[in-house]
Amino acid sequence: MKFTAQQIADILEGDILGNPNEEVSTLSKIEEGKKGSLTFLSNPKYNSYLYTTNASVAIVNKSFVPEKEINTTLIQVENAYKSFSKLLEFYNEVKNNKQGREQPHFIAETATIGESEYIGAFAYIGENVKIGNNVKIFPNSYIGDNSIIGNNTTIFAGVKIYSETVIGSNCKIHSGCVIGADGFGFAPNEDGEYKAIPQIGNVIIEDNVDIGSASTIDRATLGSTIIRKGVKLDNQIQIAHNVEVGKNTVIASQTGIAGSTKIGNNCMIGGQVGVAGHLKIGNNVKILAQAGISKNVKDGEILNGSPAFKALDYNRSSVYFKKLPSIVNRINNIEKEFKSQKEEL
C-alpha cells in the first residue's frame, strides 16, 4: 500500500514542509530510513539523523526548527510520538481490513454470522455459533459449537476456540491460542491411576480483551473461567480452570495462574510469575517478574521473590543475599572466639 505525504498529513491533521506528493509504502526507524519509507522524530537526541536519513517522509513536532537543509518531506504535528502511534493504528486497520469468505471453509447451517465478516480459508465454524458484525476469523481457525463472538472481534490464524466459549466485542485473540480446553482435573482411583474429571463449564471473555499468541485459557470444571473487560494478556500465558481475572489487569509472558484463583482489578503481573490455586489477589496489586505467589494478597500490595513477600523488604534482603557466605563466616568466627573465651574462663 502506498500513501502520499498529503494523505498522511490529512489523517494526522498536520502541516507539510516539502513535497505533498511524496509517496511512502513502508515504515522505518529514523537512523535506518530508506527511500519510500515513513519515519518520525520525537526525541531531540535523534535530531542529527533527520539530516542524514534517506526516509522520504518524517513526522516531527511543530516545535522542531531545522538547523540546516533537509531533503526529507516533513509533516509537522503537535506530538510526533502520539501521531505516529495513531498512524500505526490506522495502518493496522487498513492492513487487516479483510472482508468476504475465502474457500474452502466450513460454516454449520445452524451458525449465524453478522455483516461485513471475514472468514479465512480452512476456518471451521460449528453448530449454533453466533458471530457479530465486523468479525474477522483468519485461516485455519476453529470455532466450536455453541460459541458466541461479539462485534469487531478478530480471531487470528490458527486459534482454537472450544465449544460454549463466549467472547465479547472488540477483542483480539492472536495466533496459536487455545480457549476452552479441559482444565487440569484428575482424581486417583482405587488402583492409583488418575482418571479425568469431566470439565463441563466454559470460558467467558468480556469486551476489549487482548490475548497474546500461544496463550491458553482452560474451561471451568463447573461454571466459568472469566476474563473481565479490558484485560491484556501477553504471549504464552496459562490460565487454569475457574480462574477469574479482574478488569484492566495486565499479565506478562510465561505467567501461570492455577485453578480457582481470583485476581482483582487493575493488577500488573510480571513475566514468569507462578500463582498457586484457590487464592484471592486483591485490586491494584503489582507482582514483579518470577515471583511465586502461595497465599492471598491484599489490595495494593507490591510483591517480589519466591515465595513472594513485600518488594521493599525483598530489595532490602537482596543486599544480604549476596553477603550470606561472608556473614556465615563471621558468625562461625564469633562462635569459635566465644567458645575459646568460655574455655579459658
Automatic annotation (TrEMBL):
EC number(s) per entry: 2.3.1.191
Keywords, in A-Z order: Acyltransferase, Lipid A biosynthesis, Lipid biosynthesis, Lipid metabolism, Repeat, Transferase
GO MF annotation: an example: N-acyltransferase activity
Domain UDP-3-O-[3-hydroxymyristoyl] glucosamine N-acyltransferase non-repeat region intervals: 23-89
Reaction catalysed by this enzyme: a UDP-3-O-[(3R)-3-hydroxyacyl]-alpha-D-glucosamine + a (3R)-hydroxyacyl-[ACP] = a UDP-2-N,3-O-bis[(3R)-3-hydroxyacyl]-alpha-D-glucosamine + holo-[ACP] + H(+)
Alphabetized SUPFAM superfamilies for the sequence: Trimeric LpxA-like enzymes (SSF51161)
UniProt domain Mannose-1-phosphate guanyltransferase C-terminal: residue ranges: 103-181
Active site location: 241 (proton acceptor)
Cited Pfam families: GMPPB_C, Hexapep, Hexapep_2, LpxD
HAMAP family, per database record: LpxD (MF_00523)
Protein's name according to its UniProt entry: UDP-3-O-acylglucosamine N-acyltransferase
UniProt organism field: Polaribacter haliotis
